[in-house]
Amino acid sequence: MIRLLPILVFLSLAAISAQSQSAAARTYFTVTFDEGLSASPLDGRLLLLFAKDDGQEPRFQLADGPQTAQAFGIDLDGWKAGQPVTFDATVFGYPIESLKDVPFGEYWVQVLLHKYETFTRADGHTVKLPMDRGEGQQWNRAPGNLYSLPIRVIFNPQNPRNVAIKLSQAIPSIEPPQDSKYVKHVQIRSKLLSDFWGRDMYLGAHVLLPEGFDEHPNAKYPVAIFHGHFPSDFGGWRTEPADTSQPCEYSSRFQLDCYNRIQQQEAYDFYKTWTGPNFPRAIVIEIQHANPYYDDSYAVNSANLGPYGDAITYELIPYIEQEFRGIGEGWARFLYGGSTGGWEALAAQVFYPDEYNGCFAACPDPIDFRAYCLVNIYEDKNAYYEEGPFRRTLRPGHRDYLGNVSATLKDMNYRELVLGNYGRSGQQWDIWEAVYSPVDSNGYPQRLWDKYTGEINPEVAAYWKENYDLAYILKRDWATLGPKLKGKIHIYCGDMDNYYLNNAVYLMEDFLKETTDPHYDGEVDYGDRAEHCWNGDHSQPNAISRLRYNQMFITKWAEEVKTRAPKGADLMGWRY
User: Fold this and answer.
1) Quick one: which of 113, 120, 408, 509 could link to 394 by a disulfide (CB 3.0–4.6 Å)?
2) DSSP string covering 376-443
């Protein structure tokens, strides 16, 4: 059970008089904070949350699926201690749009302020955004955010009586991970990103050193870049067997009991493989590139995020190679990852074809925008609906392996719209816009579609096509890219991916199979009835193979590199 403030608020159930306020004018909740939490005025997004489940705080229950909490959001600029902020029926909400339509009932209610910082960028725009504070751009866990303890409320939307809530808590800072024999943690100030954002900006990485690193001081190693979401520490690594004294945790996603122990055992098995004989010796890095829009940058240059692709490729990776004896040449670097990491691996290989020597992209985010999940951004007029002459059908956004739909694309975007306007939700659809879109006149990303109506902007779609549609770019530029990418592209996806990502892979495969001069000479493979994020392993269920990226792709690349390394390259010094 969560720790709850023992307050029971009863709203009168008396009939509303004829003289009562209109529904739109009613104030339902008033929120304040004391100077003890902040003496300075605050900018940010104030969120009011309702939940039925008392098993965890409402701030942890907002989701795309049917069991989501309810939320409402307000932008605040210069909010001062003691100054009341009111939530009335005009404030936009998800999944119910207005407080006046929330059903009568008993709820746990909580309020949270997601703080914004002001940036004066090199492009001349001044914007207010939530800077990452070490948590990986998670609004409900970000250090420094203010929140209230949950209170129990019997809510009647037809009664205008106000409930006063005071923010009383601040999320504490996060302790950085500690170095060990094998895992090191680095952070550098990026000049490229600092110049763009107008403040110091940093890139970090968790670095896994090879077995025998200290015993072989003259050895130099290839670098494996494992792309993905924000890692708090090096993932899937454990030097001790699974802790069987811990209570078992059930995974509803994989329908497996004790999945926490399975994960721990897989992490320990990787440690034994890594330190055992005959495993290729390499440096593995997991990059920390959380930013004001998301938990990672998508590892490419962007008008809204800045030159993250260059910063990672030309600042961070060379720094790590120098510090830990990397070979330091493009032929000795390769990329892999799943989902966001799958798109990043393929995109970095395409945009920096000479700097990397192979990518393994599992369940990548849309790599052909004709299948931007279930939207063709070039032909469809509306993202949320498939439109016919007499009806409009909502587009699905999430399914299981049997096709059961748990969220529509509209649902997913409305949740983001509550969490933050101008692309500031820190969530999936907003980061795609932040990465792929040009900058709007207000300094924020131009919308591919109207976030409320779903109407697509064809001018923005055309910009996306020329700059980030990977299938289109490969087809457009194959005469120059093809010779550099021969044998380097590997793509894997389940044919029942939860987010319909397999549709874009089919389109990419159609092009790759037809390539000539040269043929792409790579691999595209599908998992039968496999969900997100299948990665090419037909021998194991998704629940297991997703924990084995390092073992799978390092060994695979170590064999392939023999055919793609330049003459005279050191292929033996790191194979002791």
Assistant:
1) 408
2) -TTT-SBSSEEE-SS-EEEPEEEE-TT--EEEEHHHHHHHHHHH-STT-S-SHHHHHHHHHSPBPTTS
